[in-house]
Amino acid sequence: MYPEPLSGSGQRWHLSFGVFQTPPDETRAPVEAALSAGYRHIDTAAAYGNERPAGASPARPW
After folding, report:
1. Confidence (pTM)
2. What is the pLDDT of residues 15-49, one digit of tens each?
3. Is 39 labeled as catalytic in the residue annotation?
């Protein structure tokens, strides 16, 4: 979780969903569930090897 400063004063907290060590063939369903639950930040990296299935998960725009 990390804060994002808002204009003026205050901040909003973000919670991200990570897919570290999630096998590529098992990435899509958890990412779709996270998006449905309200997550808007999916934490992935090229080193994880599962960026493509994580990016393919959003079947519809939020």
Report:
1. 0.69
2. 889 999 999 999 989 999 998 888 888 888 888 88
3. no
Distance between CA 55 and CA 42 in Å, rounded?
9
Question: What is the DSSP annotation of the chain?
Answer: -EEEEPSSS-EEEE--EE-TT--GGGSHHHHHHHHHHT---EE--GGGT-HHHHHH--SS--
Tokens of 35: 């998006």
Residues 24, 32, 39, 48: which is the catalytic one?
A: 48
* Location of structure tokens 């994880």: 48
- What tokens were used for 21? 């060590």
> What is the total residue count of the chain?
62
- Closest among 2, 56, 58, 1 to 25, alpha carbons compared: 56
